[in-house]
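FAQ: What does a multi-protein file look like?

Like this. Sequence, then tokens, then the next protein.
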Amino acid sequence: MSTRAVVIERPGKLALCEVADTEPGPGEAKVRIAYAGICGSDRDLLAGSRPPGYVRYPVIPGHEWSGIVTTVGSDVSSELVGQPVVGEGFRACGSCDACRSGDTTLCAGTYEETGFTQPGAWTDHLVLPAELLHVLPRGSDLRSAAGLEPAACAAQAVLVGAPSASDRVAVVGGGTIGLLATQLLAASEVRELTVVDLDPSIAALARRCGATSVSTQPDPLEGQFDLVIEAAGAVGTAELATRLARRGGRVVLLGIPDEHDRLPTSYLVTANLTILTVFGAPRRAWDLAVVAFGRGDLDPGVLVTHEMSIADVAEAFQLLENPPHGLGKILLRP
């Protein structure tokens, strides 16, 4: 038996192939993929710019996805079959100090992640450890649920930032993760929620996601916010986030800019800022995102602008390279 899958054989080499259709072994489940997202890290896979040790070619990409469980291994509850699910990507060892404390994205073992070193979801069926699955309510919108992986990363930023009802909060970056963080912050009922982005066209969507204001001119806002979440990942946006925070405020860095980015240490110290960082999403962040999705506080589907067949994945990459006006999230369908 075989199934279709998009395979990046090596940097620059992309193909739709027939691959072996494997069955779940002990502790595993097989999922029929409904939707799978495509993002900047997938573009890095194709370009060959992902850091060594964080990719293994050839690879089937796809770390953002939703689907229905079709089969389970012999030691997995059969009640899982037929359930709508999403799944964590990190394959943590479960026994190191970081794993035991719940920080599975910091696992001291060998890095393994769905879509980067392990087969991902740009395929008809995905087999993965059942313990990584999160069951969604029956009847869930799987199109929207495919965005729960970036939402979990946003949820981790909210968890570490610990917003309170009295906080004035800013989100730097009106892309996918920034607007998902905005939705979660809005559900926290913070006092003020501003999205900062140089593109004025995102204003309506940002407000739909819960922003109380949107700014394309950040300079007048410097020093005004108790909590700032940086989700743009461009050179200079982390420094901007620190300038937006009040003295003694908190800044959470989510984006990963290139090596030319710098932060002014003297300012961080004299402003007495608390700098927090996020790398991926541990289970507690996934739990928050899934619960928020289930109760309607989180809807990644509002960010989707394009749905394409996995057979058209090359066209999807072209859209990412030369984005048309208004491009949002792209989903692939098996």
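And here is the next protein:
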Amino acid sequence: MIKEQITKKTQGYFLNAVCLGIALLAANGEINAADNIDEQVALAKADREYTFSEVVTESVAGDVYADPSKWQDLSYSNMFSEGWDKPWASPPAGGGGAPRQGWLNAYEGVFYRLGISVFGWQHDLAGAADGYSGSLTVFTPLNQRFEVQTDIPMAVSNRRPNDEARETNFGDFQIIPRFILSESRDVTQTFNITFRTPTGVSENLGQNIAAVTPNYQFWANWWQGFVVRGGAGFFIPYAGDLNRSGARSTFNANLAAGYYFTPHDFTPIGDMVWYLSTNLNQTIATTAARAGLW
């Protein structure tokens, strides 16, 4: 009798173990199936074909942060074939974990979708009184390769060259097509062309100038929170009040390096970065007559 009870208990344990094994296999199968479905959905999204209007609409107004799988590496080799037909998606943090953010007095090097209002002050501008400015800069990505930056100088205020009176007016409007040459998690490289229009008045120092400024920019983060960014290009004025403004063709370069000391969610000082930025401006035309023909 005792032997039969032991045998029945053993059989019961064995059946329970078998059932548990089957349940675990089924659950594992469901997990693998779910993983496969997620991978298939991600691949389907990456391979999806968009119309031109869908690309622009999602880039400008879509949730560019919700689906990281929409972002992809871009390279020089596929410059003319990849990224033009896909909506822009916010890229991930760099290889060291640093965010792709803008710094004052430093080249961008990356794409954004945002608007920034900036107040500027220049002490003893051109040997005269202090100069002030208020502007709105808007970054509008249209696809993964191309975005448009607009600089709207809402107010420029400084002392007029001929007397002591202060002049306050709208400044020179700028529109900047920007192209991604290559982008990986660690490095982004862009080519940008600034078209400056002489919408300001010549009574404001440094305004009423038409110019074109092609330049190359980069952003890199390989190690922890350390970021290096910069670039180089040319400022080429060709019309407007070149004599009074003193505008000349120049070679311009920027190099900035900084370190992020806090993570993004470290409230209230998340993404605290200390950086040093240096700029070079070298005149390459000595007279106003040659300013646009260097």
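Q: Is there any per-entry metadata?
A: Some entries carry free-text notes. For the entry above: DSSP finds three helices and ten strands in the chain.
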